[in-house]
DNA sequence: GTGAAAGCGCTAACAC
DNA sequence: GTGTTAGCGCTTTCAC
């Protein structure tokens, strides 16, 4: 017997007086092997609790059975729900998941993608960082043959599978509800101007205004280039809105992070919600219904988005499709109208 | 020139008419190499945008420069903060981070650890799943030479570095505040009975009772074996508490998940907080101050815990210490006394 | 049905 | 200072 500190095919082969290729065949359910031999090998491998080395296998096969995920931050409850969806689909297919964060930074995002590719992931799921405008580096990687599926904050320039929420409808309905409740001057605070998410939600917002015979006012539209993570983005936006002659009586906040931050800030300023200003946002936080006042929000199907995106990626990986018709899946959102937008709170 | 679809040392060596070892040396800043040759190689490598294959390097070196993390779920804000701390320390040392979730299940946890070891991580950071009681499998892995640092929910049985919050003090102070506010009958709801976290927080709770001349009542102590994630754990616990002859007038909830869930349930039942029952919990959610009523809570230093644990792990990895004196670091917690425990809410 | 041998991309003795 | 060689653990021709 060879020393037992590291169990390898070689050791098993030596102990059993066979060749490594036979052992390899037995363990991978290869058909060209004697049933008795196979049983003997499997029994011994089980006894030693042998687990084939993934790294060696990856190097040899060129496939790691791992998919990489790049998103802004797991601290955002929406994304942590997405992760659970991704895992559920991946594990079912015997794939591993490696989660990385871009913290809304282009440089970090690029670094994470580089890490993932160098670690031979079989495909990448990603939601772009707020700070990302140039995606040529992704296009290059995709063209080199690595499947990429985009979700949430997607890139319009790259042709690939995409999964998004119905951002337009969510924003349209939320804004419409504010207007229907009697608010006249609905402001808009969102993430970066160029993001797909912002663009779509903005369109929904504008449509609702138009449909109510309101002409959009540039001054009541605010963007946060760092999705509200930068020092004074939120504070400045609110300050500016409240200094307007025609001060807004409602705000539609278009991202999860911006929604919580704006809510926090307004509460800190001891401005009455919804009497002085009504709020309707986007959030997946389970605490939204427990805040004071309960926060009206558009809820995105996080789990489903992750699951669907992972399924599409796995399909690309397994079937090695290069010239597929790529599709964009749009998932429905749910509206929760609560006290912060002037509605009556109904818990549960 | 060799075909350019895959850039390897071999290709560079061929193109430059050198040996792969020379290329390897140049790229790894080896000293035994001619400065001019080195520059030529680096220039060409840069031109091709060459990135050495991590998998091959890992197989060869036996080190992946990656640390694995196992925790219950990133959906818990405390853990997502821990992750950010881990990343900050790891990136600084040029290490990658691979995050996995156990969802409080022993089997999943074991599977994740197996995945990580087979993928040759250089060390593991872990907080035990609620469902884990037998840690012999971890002991085996650690004894085989893989460094493991425990954080948050730790294992008393394995000798290794550990990082925890001051659970005893947090629980003691929280319970004391409830008692000082005039509540007479403070109940306790926590995660699984055997968890290190529960044990310590329970001890703090009991100490506070004793110090106030109160004898603990078994009937007002509830455990949730799945940390509140299982169907009716929370509902049953609350039902039982409220059916007692001597109904509690306050509840100390001892984990992040249990705290939010209990709060949610009490609000749904339309029981007045704190008038009918006061609440004091453990949570890292940033929305705690915005709930109604604002939720009194013990806040753990998530970022610091992750950072410290990662630093200790990296120290074990880099210095290859096998016979170190292992230490347990206890980090201070912060108390936020708010309206749910009968205090006045102060925002900000 | 089984074994021998080559090689995935890289590093590290060891020669020269 | 540079090249040759072996080998990390695995899979896969290709013989037999």
TrEMBL record, chains A, B:
This is Substrate-binding domain-containing protein. It holds the Pfam family Peripla_BP_3. Keywords: DNA-binding, Transcription, Transcription regulation. Residues 7-61 form the HTH lacI-type domain. Signal peptide: none annotated. GO terms for molecular function: DNA-binding transcription factor activity; transcription cis-regulatory region binding. It comes from the Bacteria. PANTHER family: HTH-TYPE TRANSCRIPTIONAL REGULATOR GALS, LACI-RELATED TRANSCRIPTIONAL REPRESSOR. InterPro entries: HTH_LacI, LacI/GalR-like_sensor, Lambda_DNA-bd_dom_sf, Peripla_BP_I. CDD domains: HTH_LacI, PBP1_LacI_sugar_binding-like.
């Amino acid at each position: 017997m060879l020393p037992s500190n590291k169990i390898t095919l070689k050791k098993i082969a030596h102990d059993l007086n066979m060749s490594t290729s036979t052992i390899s065949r037995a363990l991978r359910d290869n058909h060209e092997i004697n049933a008795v031999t196979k049983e003997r090998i499997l029994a011994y491998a089980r006894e030693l609790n042998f687990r084939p080395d993934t790294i060696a296998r990856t190097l040899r096969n060129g496939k790691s059975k791992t998919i990489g995920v790049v998103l802004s931050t797991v601290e955002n409850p929406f994304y942590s729900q997405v992760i659970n969806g991704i895992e559920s689909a991946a594990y079912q297919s015997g794939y591993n998941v490696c989660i990385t964060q871009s913290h809304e930074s282009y440089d970090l995002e690029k670094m994470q993608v580089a890490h993932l590719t160098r670690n031979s992931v079989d495909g990448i799921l990603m939601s772009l960082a707020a700070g990302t405008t140039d995606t040529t580096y992704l296009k290059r990687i995709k063209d080199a043959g690595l499947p990429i599926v985009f979700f949430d904050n997607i890139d319009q320039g790259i042709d690939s599978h995409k999964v998004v929420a119905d951002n337009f409808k969510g924003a349209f309905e939320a804004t419409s509800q504010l207007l229907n409740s009697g608010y006249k001057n609905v402001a808009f605070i969102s993430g970066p101007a160029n993001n797909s998410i912002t663009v779509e939600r903005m369109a929904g917002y504008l449509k609702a205004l138009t449909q109510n015979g309101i002409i959009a006012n540039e001054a009541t539209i605010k963007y946060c280039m760092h999705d509200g993570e930068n020092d004074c983005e939120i504070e400045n936006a609110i300050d500016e809105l409240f200094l307007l002659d025609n001060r807004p009586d409602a705000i539609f906040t278009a991202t999860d992070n911006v929604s919580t931050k704006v809510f926090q800030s307004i509460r800190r300023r001891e401005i009455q919600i919804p009497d002085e200003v009504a709020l309707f946002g986007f959030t997946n936080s389970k605490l939204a219904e427990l805040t004071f006042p309960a926060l009206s929000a558009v809820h995105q199907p996080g789990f489903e988005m992750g699951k669907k995106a992972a399924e599409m990626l796995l399909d690309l990986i397994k079937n090695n499709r290069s010239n597929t018709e790529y599709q964009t899946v749009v998932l429905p959102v749910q509206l929760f109208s609560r006290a912060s937008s002037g509605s009556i709170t109904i818990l549960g």
